[in-house]
């Protein structure tokens, strides 16, 4: 299991499908659990080619 320290949420996924994608593979996961505790911290999002905060 891979977890990112300081993440505002975590998703537990089960492998749903694996597709060949050139010299690597694309894994599609099915979300089976979510942990998103309440926080006042802003979320970092990628939108229209840039990074910003979602409050």
Give an account of the 3D structure:
By secondary structure, this protein is an all-beta fold. It has one domain. Helix content is 0%, strand content 62%. The protein has no helices and 4 strands. The strands form 2 sheets. A two-stranded antiparallel ribbon has the order 1-2. It has a two-stranded antiparallel ribbon with strand order 3-4. Strand 1 and strand 2 form a beta hairpin. The chain is flat and about 40 Å long. It starts with 9 loop residues before the first strand and ends with a strand. The mean pLDDT is 87.
Outline of the structure:
The chain has 55 residues and is mainly beta. Helix content is 0%, strand content 62%. It is built from no helices and 4 strands.
Helices and strands, with pairings:
Blueprint: E1 10-21, E2 24-35, E3 43-47, E4 50-54
Antiparallel strand pairs: 1-2, 3-4
Helix content: under 10%
The chain-level mean pLDDT equals 87
| Strands ordered across the widest β-sheet | 1-2
Gyration radius, rounded: 15 Å
- Strand % is over 45%
pLDDT below 50 for ≥5 consecutive residues: which ranges?
none
- Summed up, the helix count is 0
Spell out the helices and strands N to C.
EEEE
